[in-house]
Amino acid sequence: MPTIALEMPDYAKAAKEQPRVSYLASLVRWLQLKKYQYEVTFSLYMLTSTEKFIFNLILFILVSLLVTAASLYLPDHVAVIYNRIWYYVHGGEIAYMNAASVAAAGEKTTLGQAIGESLKLTSGAIKAGAKATVREL
């Protein structure tokens, strides 16, 4: 009886052992791949070198302006938003300042007493403002 020898095709065999490449060579290859992906994504491969330079310059300027604006103005904007949230949640800075002044006065009071005192001060200020407004009308 004849025997049939089945051999695995080359594509089914385990990957051949590749020689170890240095980290620098693999980094260069990765950067080349990213440059290729960038050029293909934005269709830069069909532009001349001058057109590529102009496109990349405009892109660089826009990204640098965005990063500069985010680093300079975003922290202040976040602080303003935080202050507005504080105002909406806690009823304004008047009550907050009054509670802090009552607590800083050195009196031994509980938090409830401090809040009650600050609410009395705040309501008194609102009442005085309302009386002045009514007088003007």
UniProtKB/TrEMBL annotation:
Bilayer-crossing regions: 53-74
Compartment(s): Endoplasmic reticulum membrane
Main location: endoplasmic reticulum
Keywords annotated in UniProt: Endoplasmic reticulum, Membrane, Transmembrane, Transmembrane helix
Record bears the keyword Transmembrane: yes
An annotated GO cellular component: endoplasmic reticulum membrane
InterPro entries on file: Ser_palmitoyltrfase_ssu-like
Membrane topology: Multi-pass membrane protein
Pfam families in UniProt: SPT_ssu-like
Protein name: Uncharacterized protein
